[in-house]
Each structure stands twice: as C-alpha cells, then as structure tokens.
Amino acid sequence: MPEATQVFVDHRELLFSVVYNMLGSVADTEDVLQETWLAWAPRSESGEEIANPRAYLVRIAINRALARQESIDRRREQYVGPWLPEPVATGDQEDASGEALRAESVSMALLVVLQSLSPTERVVFLLHEVFGYAHTEIAEILDRTSASVRQLAHRAREHVHARRPRYDVDPGLRRRATEKFLAAVFGGDLTGLLRLLAPDVTLWSDGGGKAPQPGLRPVHGRDKVARLLTSGFDRVPAGLDVHHREVNGDPSAVVFDGDAPFGMMVLDLTPDGEQVNGIYIITNPDKLTHLGPAHREGGASGPAGAPSLDHVDD
Length: 314
Known about the structure:
The protein is globular, with a radius of gyration of 21 Å. Helix content is about 50%, strand content about 15%. The chain is α+β, with helices and mostly antiparallel strands. The chain has eleven helices and six strands. The protein has a six-stranded mixed beta sheet with strand order 2-1-6-5-4-3. About 40% of the residues are buried. Helix 1 (about 5-25) runs antiparallel to helix 2 (about 25-45), helix 2 (about 25-45) packs antiparallel against helix 3 and helix 6 (about 120-130) packs across helix 8 (about 145-165).
C-alpha cells in the first residue's frame, strides 16, 4: 500500500468519528472523507514533508465538514417532523462505520444536544471533551487564537451540561428499562408506562415523512407521551421482531420486519436510572440502513401486532 494511502487508512476511524459526530449523517461523513482524501493524496505524494499528518488530516476533514454544514442546514429546513442523527450500530464488527465509532461513541441524546450548538462550538466541544484535544491544538486546526477557542469551549460546555448533565447509567439497567418500556407500549399498558416515564419526559420521533411516527413535533410531558405511544399501538404492523443492539454506544431496541429494519428506539434515563426522561424513535428507512439485517437464529415473531420481546441479538 502506498505510504499516502496507508497514512489515510490509519487515521480513517478518527476522521469518521469526528465528522459523523459533527454532522450526524453517515452519507455526508463519507462524502467529507472522500473530499479529505482528494485533498490529502496530491499533497502527501508531492514529496512535501508534512510534520503532523494526523493534525493535517483532521484539519482538512473539519473544514470540509464545516463547509458542508450550510447545505445540510438547508436540507433540514425542508425535513418533515423532527430531525434526529442517523443511528449507527457501534457493536457491529462487520459495519465499517460502526467500527469507526466504537472507540469514541457519542450517545443519541448528546448528539441531539450538540445539534443546538453552532457548528464551530460543536467542533470545539467534540475535539476537547470527546477526543481530548488541547485548546492550543484546536486553535491551530481552526486557525483561531487559543483565547477564542477557550471561550467557545466554555460556552459550549455550559450549554451542553445545562441541557444534559453528566451522568452514567449502567448498560444493564438501561437494557432492562428498555424491555419494560417496550412491554408496556406494545401491551397497551398505560398505567405501567406512566410509572416508567419521568414527569418531564420528551419524545422525539423521526420518520422524515417516509414512515409512521408518533408525532411531527417533540412531545413533552408524561401524560401526553404515554397516551400518544399507547394509542399508536394499533398502527404497528404485526409480526415484528425486537433485537437489542448497541447503537451510538447505548443499548437500544431495533425493530425488524423480516430482515429489514422497521424502526429504532433508544431511551435516556434519569440519573438514578429509575425513569425515562428521553425517548428517541427513528422510523425513516433512509436512516436505518446502517443497523444491519436481522439475524434470526432462534428468533420468533410475537403475536399479531406485537413484537417479540424475547429475541436478543447483541
């Protein structure tokens, strides 16, 4: 393998993870990486010495991603209903994008919060808080002063922590909460669902106008969310399977119709892990392609209209 190609391959996972967490779209991330390669290859093969290839590649990728952000924002203005980042199965060893995100996974809930930052604030937050870059390194990448980067980092960190304070919930606890939640929803158990939901819970659902979704706007409040979810049960196709997978670093439920993904759901729990305060549902088929096919070893569909809750595919 030529040296320029090898250097790019060695850094591809890092580049993918940084850009994906900026843009929330696998297709746009792949386009940015292609543009990065086209900018990198001639320079690296010209014989000109590049002292720090990693920093050089990250700088190219980030600048290309920032340039693409404007067209992405225009697309989202025309989007039907809430827009959620494209989910990626981080536990799938066979998926190249999943492999790239395994080391530095950002949860769906945090990705949603990051989208409310300016593109530059998002870059600074990701590079410093997620990837461990020093402010001086970020300043060189963005061609800004260290002081301005520190100010951006402080503003971004305050915004993120105000909307989503730092806490970790045990993956096993999140998995059990997901199973209870699904059983209540698909079983039409309004009382059980009300017990699981926090008073200030919010439901985001992304169908993109191409698939059924519980609401065209974020829905806030325990009573509204519970009634919306249980009333929509009769519109769910019969014979679905639920597979539990790691998506964006979090345990999630992926619902399959045959071997094709029908929808994906991930929950955000309260700091004590006792209740659900965020529900993210994606049914837009264009966003489910990186969740892979269903693996049916021993799997069985549930009763008509209700997915099976005992089929596990980790």
